[in-house]
Each structure stands twice: as structure tokens, then as C-alpha cells.
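hi!! sorry for the late reply, been swamped w classes. u asked for the two structures so here they r. pasted raw, havent cleaned anything up. first the sequence of the first protein and right below it the C-alpha cells
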Amino acid sequence: MATTRAQRCCMAKRKAPSFSRSQLPLSRDKAKQPIGHTSIQQDSRNPKLFTNRAMTRIKLQSWESCIDDCLHSIELDRNNMKGYYYLAQAQLALNHPNEALESAQTAYQQCLETESSSIRNASQLVLQAKKEKWEAKERERIRKRSELLAELEHGLQRMKEFELGNVDFRHKDRGDSTELREERHEVEDISRQKIEELRSIFALADPQNLALRQVPSHLIDNISFNIMHDPVLTKTGHSYDRCTILEHLKRSPTDPLTRETLTVGDLRPNLALKQACAEFLEGNGWAVDY
């Protein structure tokens, strides 16, 4: 039986869903509000809210906004380790290694003062900033030595960024994941190998650059076998990177080499070795990945 226009209107009204205020979709203006906007609006003096939003913006690669949040959180709390830690990451992403190194070193120092469990991550961030600072200087040196090599390296860098963008695009709906990190790491490794091979080819015409790259053994940590960033000396005369020996002492209160009893109170800064490590990294940033 055909329905009249009035009957169809009545049926449409009965089928229309009803929403409570909390179920209504966001307005266009509210949808444009930044992440964490409501919480920060309610408590704008809480630095943790800004660092939490900064962490989210790192995952979204919103680097400029992340820096703004970090600076705001640090302004509210000068001892905000996470603020400096996230700030360093964003500065590295924007190719500002000098500023990133300063931020990472501040985060590391605050980890020491508070005995934070994040000390190892902060130490690795310091080394990463030192490496990228060296790479910037190395690119400039290479540019002056060979314009052609510099152009080829720039092309490989752009290719890497393009491939990383493709990886991120494929995973954009899945969020941060182990698979995403592994794919990005693989792209970066392949790019690094290509650049090293390219430099080796060009170095054939420049014998003075063929010297074998090695890290002096006294600069290498005996636990992680990486170059040290903040070495400390034990009562038995052995040196270890501070973050690795602290982690070891949590598991076993002994010297890893001699097996003698060792406590945190037995550790002393090895300032001479720390200076030697810093000077070596200044001219050999590649050693971070040694």
C-alpha cells in the first residue's frame, strides 16, 4: 500500500536516533582544538599536562608544536626532565643538533640527580645528539672537498626521507608499533651503508681519508662495548659508563670484571677519561654506532 507524504514524515521522525549531549559529535571548532587542549585549559599551570601532550606530538611528528609544549613545561618547572628529554628529540628531528645536545645533557644531569630509571635513554640521546652534530660538520667538510660527493649524498638523504615517509604512510592507521620502528630502522641502516660505500669510492682518489676507523679501547665501556659518555672509576681501577654500571649494580653488587663487591658509593667520576671521550666524539661522530 502506498504511503502518504505525512505518513513518511512520521516514520522518519520515529527512526531518527536521539543523542545525549555527551554523545553528540564534536563541532567543527572543537574538532580543530589541539590534543590535550581541554585538560590544559582547565589546569594551565600543570607542567605534566604539557609534557604528556609533547610526547603525543612526537608520535605524530608535530615537532614545532612539541617544542612549544616542552618550553612551556620547562618554564613551569625547571627540573622537568621529560620536558628537556622530549625537547631534545624534537630538536634532533628538525636538524638542530647543537640545541638538542644542550637539552639532552640537561635531561641526563637531572636523571643523575633524581636517580631516574631513564638515565640510559638520556645517555643514548646525548650520544645521538653528538653524532648528528658531528655529521653536520662532516657534511660541510665533504661539501668543501667535493661538490659532486655532496650532491650525491644529498640525493641519498632525500631518498631516505622519501622512503621513511612511505613507511609512515603505510602505518598511519596503526599508530606506533614494533613493525613501524623496525621498518624505519631498516631504511636508515640501508641509507647509512650506501653513504659509507659512496664515501669509500670517492676516498680511493684521496688516500689520506683511507685510514681505518677505530675507537681506542680505553674509551669503550666493558659492559655495553660502546664508546662511553660519562665514565666512572671503581675502587679496583676499572672504568665503566655510568648508566651501564648503575644498571649492572641493580642486578649484582659486584665489579663486572673482578667480581669484587661494588656499590654505587664506590664509583667516582673519571674526568680525564670523560674529556678524552668528548674530544674523540667531537671529531669522530661515527663512533656512536661503533
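now the second protein. again sequence first, C-alpha cells right under
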Amino acid sequence: MSMSPSKQAAIQAYRSLLRTQKQVFGADIRAIDAARKETYNRFIQFKDETNTDILEEKLQLASQVETLLRRNVVQSVAEGNTDVFKLRITKDTELGDNDSIKKSKNINRNKRSKQQSVGCCGGNH
């Protein structure tokens, strides 16, 4: 019995997401379990879907989620009984200097400073 290419692609995407979750969350069993359950629930919703456009859209979403997890989620691990945490940064973790975030915040600040400030009850500050 052979599977259609879309079923095979769904199985590959599902397994790949589970592997990525294990890599990203390391020894955090609760996070792995929650991610696994959410992944299962999302995939099971479309198990009988026959529309290839919808299936392709969902497979693309799974790929994007996997990439987001791999590049942007960082786990921290407490070191002993202190308030110190060690970050688990992997080779795939996206490291940046936050310049784009700093620039967008400054743009929003400049817009707000030009507008008149209005209080919660319509009063001016």
C-alpha cells in the first residue's frame, strides 16, 4: 500500500518538527510534551484534508514553525540554587545585534512625541 506524496510530506514534516522540539527544548520534558501535544493536535485536524492547496499551506506553516523554533527559541537552565541561569544557545540560534528592533522603536517614539499626549480620561498630560 503506497501513500500519496502529500501524506509522506506530512509525516516527514511531523517527524522533523518533533526532532527539532527535542533539540530545542533539551531536557525540558514539560516543554517537549506540550510541544508534542500541540503538534499532534494541529496535524490531526487536517488528517482527512484532500485539498492540496490547504495541505501545502499547512506543510509550509510546519516548516516555518520548525525554523522559528530552531533559530529563535533559547532555553535557560538554572545553575545550582542561585538566581543565575545559563542559556542553551545552539549552532542554529540566530544571534543579532537588535539594530532593527532599536530602529523601529525609535521610529515609533518619534511619531508619539509629535502627537499630543492624552490621558486615560481624555485629560491632557
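hope this helps!! also noticed smth abt the second:
The radius of gyration is 22 Å.
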